[in-house]
UniProtKB/TrEMBL annotation:
Location of the ACT domain: 195-281
Keyword terms, alphabetized: Amino-acid biosynthesis, Aromatic amino acid biosynthesis, Lyase, Phenylalanine biosynthesis
Pfam families (UniProt xref): PDT
Top EC group: lyase
Gene name as annotated: pheA
PROSITE patterns per UniProt: ACT, PREPHENATE_DEHYDR_3
GO biological process terms, semicolon-separated: L-phenylalanine biosynthetic process
GO cellular component, one term: cytoplasm
UniProt pathway annotation: Amino-acid biosynthesis; L-phenylalanine biosynthesis; phenylpyruvate from prephenate: step 1/1
Record's protein name: prephenate dehydratase
Superkingdom assignment: Bacteria
Enzymatic reactions: prephenate + H(+) = 3-phenylpyruvate + CO2 + H2O
SUPFAM superfamilies, alphabetized: ACT-like (SSF55021), Periplasmic binding protein-like II (SSF53850)
Species of origin: Flavobacterium succinicans
Length: 281
């Protein structure tokens, strides 16, 4: 039986590319126009799992998505890293000299601005989605307009890549998480990463004490982000990602932090798949 995967965007988007990489090529996707719609797809049973972008190596964490996962009690069961490669594409047979406008998502345009500045006569037009732009060019056979999108979009919508890999910064990687409504069993031998949330009172040294416990338990803190609790002034929620070599070290830290924190919650325990881009400390 095939599993239906919710993605943000349409086929040919980077979310679709991650779904294909993680769940293999012949994946059935539920195309969602927003992350809120993606969550609803899971909650209503329209899909069994979902792919959600959670942070970018340049832009940083997507905090609203952490809040969506937490608010709807979803479970992170895995992760996938994708190198974001942007490509300029148009209907076959066209050259860069034939292009009058480039349409794409505002972030994609910004990521490729150094390349685009070389062609000041080309008009830049912001659009809602990279893959949607590529699909529209294909369906309407629009000449003179190019899209910036993924290789997957070019292949899916039969567009020709005029200029490959035009992003300004090469090491632009986005981390995606795999979500389910119910938690999936992963053996403790495989688990070496966790996403947790805790809340602390506004007291001097409270956060430092928690971080010291994590350090003493041999956890590597890979990300920490705070959010104020709107309904409770001077209290903060902290979303934290940690990696570890031994599950028992994490289990010890989890037990201690759950006692120290005003509120503690596990968003997911799963296998770390981060590629080694740099030498370890």
């Amino acid at each position: 039986m095939e599993t239906k995967i919710a993605i943000q965007g349409i086929k040919g988007s980077f979310h679709h590319q991650v779904a294909k990489d993680y769940f293999y090529q012949n994946v059935i996707v539920d195309e969602c126009l927003s992350f809120e719609e993606l969550v609803d797809s899971l909650l209503k049973g329209n899909s069994e799992q979902a792919v959600m972008a959670i942070e970018n190596s340049i832009a940083g964490p997507i905090i609203p998505n952490y809040a969506l996962i937490d608010k709807n009690n979803l479970h992170i069961i895995g992760e996938h890293y994708l190198d974001i490669i942007q490509n300029l594409m148009a209907l076959p047979g066209q050259k860069i000299e034939d292009i009058q406008e480039v349409h794409s998502h505002p972030m994609a345009l910004l990521q490729c601005m150094d390349f685009l500045k070389k062609y000041p006569n080309i008009k830049l037009v912001e659009d809602k989605d990279t893959a949607e732009t590529a699909r529209r060019i294909h369906e309407n056979q629009i000449k003179g307009i190019a899209a910036i999108a993924s290789i997957t979009a070019a292949e899916m919508y039969n567009l020709e890549i005029i200029a490959p890999s035009i992003q300004t910064i090469d090491n632009n990687m986005t981390r995606f998480v795999i979500l389910k409504k119910e938690n999936s069993f992963v053996s403790e031998e495989e688990i070496n990463r966790a996403s947790i949330k805790f809340e602390l009172d506004h007291k001097r040294g409270s956060l430092a004490a928690v971080l010291n416990v994590m350090s003493d338990c041999k956890l590597n803190l890979t990300k920490i982000q705070s959010l104020p609790k709107i309904e409770t002034p001077w209290k903060y929620s902290f979303f934290v990602d940690v990696t570890f070599e031994k599950y028992e070290d994490y289990a010890k830290a989890k037990a201690l932090v759950s006692i120290m924190a005003h509120y503690f919650k596990v968003l997911g325990e799963y296998k770390n798949t981060k590629p080694l881009l740099e030498s370890p400390n």
